[in-house]
Amino acid sequence: MAVSSEHPTVLVVEDEPAQREVLYYNLQAEGFEVVTAADGDEALLLVEEEAPDIIVLDWMLPGISGIEICRQLKTRSETRGIPVIMLSARSEEVDRVRGLETGADDYVIKPYSVLELMARVRNQLRRVRPATVGQRLQYDDIVLDAETHRVTRGDHPLKLGPTEFRLLTTFMEKPGRVWSREQLLDRVWGRDIYVDSRTVDVHIGRLRKALCQHGGDDPLRTVRGAGYALG
Amino acid sequence: MAVSSEHPTVLVVEDEPAQREVLYYNLQAEGFEVVTAADGDEALLLVEEEAPDIIVLDWMLPGISGIEICRQLKTRSETRGIPVIMLSARSEEVDRVRGLETGADDYVIKPYSVLELMARVRNQLRRVRPATVGQRLQYDDIVLDAETHRVTRGDHPLKLGPTEFRLLTTFMEKPGRVWSREQLLDRVWGRDIYVDSRTVDVHIGRLRKALCQHGGDDPLRTVRGAGYALG
DNA sequence: CGTTCCTGTGACAAGGACGTAACATCTGTA
DNA sequence: TACAGATGTTACGTCCTTGTCACAGGAACG
């Protein structure tokens, strides 16, 4: 799960553009990273690529229905833990039971109050996200404290620049996961920044050097043709 | 007053369950302790029991009205210091004057923006807490007495201006934590004030000079690309 | 073994972030 | 009004960070 301690990522799946806009705007205003999908296929793709922290899912969708997406997500172990909030129009209310049966974690009826939806999103996030106070990430002997922006490796404080810090944060949020260069550019550099993807390589190198500045093995793994991973 | 320097307690008085939920979620998400009351009697009881740091009070309530509760609180000396933020529907707006007359410290009209309400809650707390908390904050050899507004470093009294004092207070409430320039502007300057974020840098410089006016290391840490921290 | 593609890394120029002095305002006070 | 203290803004210098390139080393593959 892509838990950026600062900005959890929300995936909004909604085919109606106006609705999508509203959700996008409000969620972003609340400080979330937001990605949107207009149909089921795009949604499933983005779940892979973006590893969102939570999904807001419209019931009625062209192609694969919301309920089907939800079922698929909840059967796969990698995605089972991502909370899903279902949206449905009042007339579909009868299906509420079925919605929750498929594993949706919460259920909101249109027309919904934006405030209420925000509250429910936060609620689900709070329920699911590591309850660790002060957001401390750990992998092996590497400890990253998001609040103080400090990183240590076996008692030695590490000195690393802003970009390396963000890179390492991303890796430590999900140790073992392989991130493509594009995904890293998205998360670490920002969605609409253009930089050469080789730049990632250079920064990986810098991060490696920083992590080993007091000795120890290189914990970063290069996955040829795919990207990089921690451990 | 229930002074936990980490988590101030907010009492929410609101009869409408959905509204109460929204407030509860949002305030809790912001890190407050929250207690809720559905009517006036419960509210007055909880004020005794929980000694909240601030009260968010709906105007329309079954039984004792919000305005009456506010009047009662503001006449008793034990509770006079607790800030009250009134909520009222637009149609009741005409009563704004009367609301403030009874001693409410701020006034928000429904439908309100959650962000705005949070800002106002924080504003009121910031206004009152430093004075009431009367705590002595300490970090290393630096001692800050909120009540007397005095700061010493290893027996030497330090001379610093109001802004530097507030800055230092913020840092000392959570040593080590990195504050972004925007967060500092929020807390130290106030939410709706517009000042250039570089101004923070200048005041950090002034605070540094003040802290070292009798020698000693600079305890403030610059975190490039992120902000500043104490220690 | 040779070719081709992918990755690691040193060098470097450009840009950005930060520290600070100087200046103009503003406020309260005598 | 004159004055002192405090504040916000600007400008400029310095240092750090960063993106890109070029080239070398290696892996996959026939």
The domain tally of chain A reads: 2
CATH-derived architecture of the largest domain in chain A: 3-Layer(aba) Sandwich
Proportion in β-strands of chain A: 15-25%
With helices defined by DSSP (H or I, 4 residues minimum), what is the helix count of chain A?
8
What does the main sheet of chain A amount to?
5 strands, parallel
CATH-level-4 superfamily name of the largest domain in chain A: Response regulator
**Most extensive contact:** A-B, 17 and 17 residues
Give the radius of gyration of chain A: 19 Å
Assign a percent range to the helix content of chain A: 25-40%
Please tally the β strands of chain A and state the result. Answer: 12
Q: State the CATH topology of the largest domain in chain A.
A: Rossmann fold
Q: What is the topology?
A:
2 copies of one chain form a homodimer.
Chain A: E1 9-13, H1 17-29, E2 33-37, H2 40-50, E3 54-58, H3 66-75, E4 84-89, H4 96-101, E5 106-110, H5 114-128, E6 136-139, E7 142-145, E8 150-153, E9 156-157, H6 162-173, E10 178-179, H7 181-189, H8 198-211, E11 220-223, E12 227-230
Parallel strand pairs in A: 1-2, 1-3, 3-4, 4-5
Antiparallel strand pairs in A: 6-7, 7-8, 8-9, 10-12, 11-12
Helix pairs in contact in A: 6-7, 6-8
Chain A binds a DNA duplex (30 and 30 nucleotides) through helix 8.
Task: Record keyword descriptors for this entry.
homodimer, 231 residues, alpha/beta, Rossmann fold, Arc Repressor Mutant, subunit A, 2 domains, five-stranded parallel sheet, 8 helices, 39% helix, disordered N terminus, DNA-binding, Sig_transdc_resp-reg_PhoB (chains A, B)
